[in-house]
Amino acid sequence: MDEVRPTSGAQAHGLVPLFPPGLQAIYGECRRLYPEQANPLQVTAIVKYWLGGPDPLDYISMYRNTGCPAQDIQEHWHYVSFGLSDLYGDNRVHEFTGPDGPSGFGFELTFRLKREVGETAPPTWPAELMQGLARYVFQSENTFCSGDHVSWHNPLDNSESRIQHMLLTEDPQMQPVQTPFGTVSFLQIVGVCTEELQAAQQWNGQGILELMRGVRVAGGPWLITDMRRGETIFDIDPHLQQERVDQGIETEGSNLSGVSAKCVWDDLSRPPEDEEDSRSICIGSQPRRLSDKDTEQIRETLRKGLEFNSKAALPPINGQKQNHERPQSRKDSLESESSAAIVPHELVRTRQLESVHLKFNQESGTLLPLCLRGRLLHGRHFTYKSIHGDTAITFVSTGVEGAFATEEHPYAAHGPWLQILLTEEFVEQMLGDLQELNTREETKLPKEYSWPEKKLKISVLPDSVFDDPLQ
């Protein structure tokens, strides 16, 4: 539970004896921006996290920012968190590692909310939103980076707003600070609509943020969130904005390296009764492995749960911290049983397949052109992770080193994980054949695509096929 109170003048100016140095460093950066607001309103965790409270952020300060009329920047409320970094340096929350690395998780969150006419005090709902994100970081130890997206699938203020997701970027005013416990940067939460989130997933977050900076009602240069915004950047400028996104995917590729999906794959190489035998065929004495970088990116994709349009990216956030023992190490991404199950393991044999049949529901099928055009043609990979069990399909290009699928044996399975290696020439051919999948409009199903010379078949089927356990 939180309470709202003003900070005392002595506390805000760091005059209290033994004032925590990490806290003081962040206050110092806030004072640099707001010298006239020494006593901002502050949401405070009544029971601190290290004492068993549910909220990891000790404080969230709320400032009134007058904007910058010369740059057409609107007046807004500016929220700053305290607690993702190490405030105390005594191991009560974060392991003290010295001044050279990151402090705690290395960042604090900020948020800029448009001030409504007549509003005399900042709304407090952003504080709970920031606490929710902080709980996710603490429980998963998955840190955020500029350009990341958060699928929330709910209005950020629990209203009827179209602003239901978030992108993250560097705060335009707050500079990184050096504390005795390490460095702290400031990541700003930017509220976005579903269409903008989808574009960020298909292209990249930084590209969409740059487009939003050029549209005043979508945030402008400082990316100020307006919860009453009714238009997306594509509504405001439909042709130009979509053209920029398409061009970005074409020239830079897509940052979407995988999705949770309704998908299955069948081995057409052998009759079903020989399946057990086919699983014992091994390529070489040891299975080839993806490079560490590619394996970690695939893991990252599956851990973050990059569902295209159906579920939140964050796992359930528990209201209470279940275990107050400090974890032994910090991770850059979230471990999960489902993602670990598809990572190569020496106890599972790798088998080559002569012919495969891939089956996707319509939502997953519409991403195939993006997978081919935005990922494989740029030398990258793309993974479909089934929402039912541990089945996964990874498309790799010849530019991905260390894959256990090769040009000689382009279809290879490692347990429930199928890898498909596609040459650039075949990708171009498939893009032409799959052109009708570029639209997300409903089409008549089933659809079947076949390349007999490659011994590859793809079917796009109704959702009911994947929801029926007998299929």
Automatic annotation (TrEMBL):
This is Suppressor of fused homolog. Its main location: cytoplasm. Residues 53-229 form the Suppressor of fused-like domain. PANTHER family: SUPPRESSOR OF FUSED, SUPPRESSOR OF FUSED HOMOLOG. Residues 243-460 form the Suppressor of fused C-terminal domain. Belongs to the SUFU family. Gene3D superfamilies: Sufu, C-terminal domain. One of its GO terms (biological process) is negative regulation of transcription by RNA polymerase II. The gene is SUFU. Residues 267-295, 309-340 are annotated as: Disordered. One of its GO terms (cellular component) is cilium. It comes from the Eukaryota. InterPro entries: SUFU-like_domain (IPR020941), SUFU_C (IPR024314), SUFU_C_sf (IPR038489), SUFU_N (IPR037181), Suppressor_of_fused (IPR007768), Suppressor_of_fused_euk (IPR016591). Keywords: Acetylation, Cytoplasm, Developmental protein, Isopeptide bond, Nucleus, Phosphoprotein, Ubl conjugation. It is found in: Cytoplasm; Nucleus. Residues 322-334 have a biased composition (Basic and acidic residues). It comes from Anabas testudineus.
